[in-house]
Structures are given as C-alpha cells and as structure tokens.
Amino acid sequence: MFCLNCGYNLFGLPNHICPECGSGFNPSDESTYSHTAHRRRSVPFRLVCLMTLYPLIPLALVWATWLAARLHLGRIPKAMADDPKQLGGLVPVAYVAAYLSLGGLLLGAPIYAAALLIYGVWGRENDRSIRVALLVIVAAIETALVVILLQSSIGQWFLD
Ligand SMILES: [Zn+2]
C-alpha cells in the first residue's frame, strides 16, 4: 500500500494520512492508494532548485573575466580600451564562457518559468506554493544582481 501522490509506503500507519505529503487514503478503498511505489510525474523539486541557482554561473564568470583582466593588466580594465579578446592568459577563455552563460540565462528564462509552473501545479510536495514563492524571490534577487553587475563599471567594460 503506497501513497498515490508520492509513493510513500503507507503500511502500518496509525492514521490514514501520508506522513510524506499529507494526502489522505482509505485502506478499505483500493482507489485511494497504489499497490506499487510509483510517483506522480512532475518536475522534481531538486531540479527546479538547481535551475534557480544557474544565474550564479554568469555572475561568477563575468566577475572572473574582469578579475583575470585586472590581474593581467595590473590595473583596472577600461571600457572601450581594454578588449578582453585581445588580452592574454585566461581572459579570452573566461570572456567567451561568461558570454555563453549569459546567453544561456536568456534562453533558459522561459524554460525555467515553465519548469516552475509545472512544479507548482503537479509537484509532489504539499507546501509547493511556499517553495515556489521562495524560489521566485531567489530568482528575482539573482536577476537584480545580474542587472546591477552589468550596469556597474565591470559590466560596462564587459559589454562594450
Ligand atoms: Zn504521500
């Protein structure tokens, strides 16, 4: 006897509520539980969490490109003057990686929104609205950080 919603083993429980997800069941009604430990198909919460953390990659790479250029030049890189593609060392590599990750951020935004929506509607956990709200807040903070970085002197140099 397994939970229809999350696949938790319901055998021998004192009350007829799944301790994992809160779904109710009736041991004398076969339609309220499953004979196999199947799980309802959805986007796993961990995957949505990982997707939420993605903006940290372009944030780190843009900053790392600037830092590599600064170390290479021995001074703060100037916009319109110090082209990262012309600098030596790891600067061009970091620059390309940072650019690609920023592109991934733009392409990934609608995919992320869809994953969050699917999780919110069909996810396993019962407190999904709280989880989705927290993830939206984290994503909003990250978006603000990306905007702030790109507007800063670091971003001006990177994007020129
Ligand atoms: Zn359950």
Overall strand count: 2
- Assess the beta-strand content as a share of residues: under 5%
**How much is the average pLDDT?**
92
Please summarize the sheet with the most strands.
Answer: 2 strands, antiparallel
How does this structure look, described?
This protein has helices at residues 45-53, 56-73, 91-122, 128-151, 153-159; strands spanning 2-3, 33-34. The chain starts with a strand and ends with a helix. It folds into 2 domains: 1-40, no CATH class; 45-159. The chain is rod-shaped. 56% of the residues lie in helices and 2% in strands. It has a two-stranded antiparallel ribbon. The longest helix is centred in the middle third of the chain and has 32 residues, at 91-122. The protein is mostly helical. Zinc ion is lined by residues 3, 5-6, 8, 18, 20-21, 23.
Which SSEs are present, and which pair or pack?
Elements: E1 2-3, E2 33-34, H1 45-53, H2 56-73, H3 91-122, H4 128-151, H5 153-159
Antiparallel strand pairs: 1-2
This protein binds zinc ion.
Brief synopsis:
With 160 residues, the chain is mostly helical. It has helices at residues 45-53, 56-73, 91-122, 128-151, 153-159, and strands at 2-3, 33-34. The mean pLDDT is 92.
Keywords summarizing the entry:
single chain; 160 residues; mainly alpha; 2 domains; two-stranded antiparallel ribbon; 5 helices; binds zinc ion
